[in-house]
Amino acid sequence: MEDYLIKAIALDGKVRAYAIDATNLVNELQQKHQTLPIASAALGRATTIGALMGAMMKGKDKLTIQIQGDGPLGQIVVDANAAGEVRGYVTNPKVDLPNNENGKLDVAGAIGKGNIFVIKDLGLKESYRGNIPIISGELGEDFTYYFVQSEQTPSAVAVGVLVNPDYSIRAAGGIIIQILPGITDEEVNQLEKAISKISSISSLIDQGLTPEHILGQLFHEQFKVIERINIQFTCNCSRDRIENTLIQLGKEELEDMIEKEGEAEVICQFCSTKYHFNKKELSNIIAKL
Questions:
Q1: What is the pLDDT, as a whole number, of residue 125?
Q2: Which of 33, 200, 223, 262 could form a disulfide linkage to 10, CB 3.0–4.6 angstroms apart?
Q3: Residue 275: what pLDDT?
Q4: How many other C-beta atoms can be found within 10 angstroms of the C-beta atom of residue 68?
Q5: 228 and 250 in a common domain
Q6: According to DSSP H, which parts of 118-164 are helical?
Q7: What are the distances in angstroms from CA 76 to CA 12, 87, 254?
């Protein structure tokens, strides 16, 4: 079954809701980067949020999320767009830590303290940049804080990833619920109670629930789907792009590369595709300079 997300409205248009099943996406990332469970959970949560936030964009708009913590995972980077195309990587995919005090994967400990940056390319002269400190490292809470602080939109963000013993991904998904103007305090209280009672999103997906079923539990089936978007891993790397990256290194560094190695191999951080350049090809790049 394909991964997909839905955009919906509820409470007579006073709530905007997004729900996603991202199991295949996160499983593909695990395979490409050979992540251990903690890295799978952290990267999976980040890419799930990226996909949900991408659905908030329009046309050719795109966004990048950078999670820069001081924990052993290093940096997490996610790219997403309005078409449901997502990619991501984590600097150190082989991190392994003991479970936290609740007996769960210690994602917060692996991410550490630092900052989260959100860069939106809206086709304008300058990109929008928002940033917040990492307040928990669990990411759901962090992005709940982000929406309030950076976008002034009260939101609830919940994401989860279940990892099998063989490191494959059993279930992954998330929701973002946003409160819009006109909602009453009573309606907010009822919504908060409903969110607090719902099981973890990944466990619901593991039970076979769809994004529609999940929102149905939250809103007692009183919601309207306004769009469905298929989600897939997509990397736009290419040999030409990698060649342009080598050009930016400059003549001296390329000549030094030829002298010492006689060749170059560049690996895309997002999809792990290897691009090999022999001595003649490097010489041709230098000639272009």
A1: 77
A2: 223
A3: 92
A4: 18
A5: no
A6: 140-151
A7: 37, 11, 29
Whether 57 and 79 have beta carbons less than 8 Å apart is answered as no
* pTM of the entire predicted model: 0.92
CA distances 37 to 19, 73, 80, 139, 151, Å, are 23, 12, 23, 16, 32
| C-alpha to C-alpha distance for 94 and 160, rounded to whole angstroms | 19
**Tally of structural domains, the chain:** 2
What is the reported pLDDT for 258?
85
Task: Supply the pLDDT for residue 67.
Answer: 98
* 203 and 258 part of one domain: no
What pLDDT is stored for residue 141 in this prediction? 95
Q: Average pLDDT for consecutive 10-residue bins of the chain (289 residues)?
A: 94 95 98 97 98 94 96 98 97 94 93 97 84 96 95 94 97 96 90 87 96 94 94 93 87 85 89 90 84
Dist. CA 209–CA 213, nearest whole Å = 6
- List the one residue out of 7, 4, 23 whose CA is nearest residue 15: 7
Using alpha carbons, select from 158, 138, 167, 287 the residue that is nearest to residue 211.
158
pLDDT at 24: 98
CA 189 to chain CA centroid, nearest Å: 29
- Same domain? For 226 and 244 the reply is no
Residue ranges making up the domain that contains 108: 4-233
Q: CA-CA distance, 77 to 145, in Å (whole number)?
A: 19
Tokens encoding 202 = 């990944």
Cβ density class 260-289: b for 16+ within 10 Å, e for less: eeeebebebbbbeeebebeeeebeebbeee
One domain, residues 139 and 228: yes
Q: Are residues 224 and 257 in the same domain?
A: no
The DSSP secondary-structure symbol of 113 reads: S
277: left (phi over 0), alpha (psi -120 to 50) or beta: beta
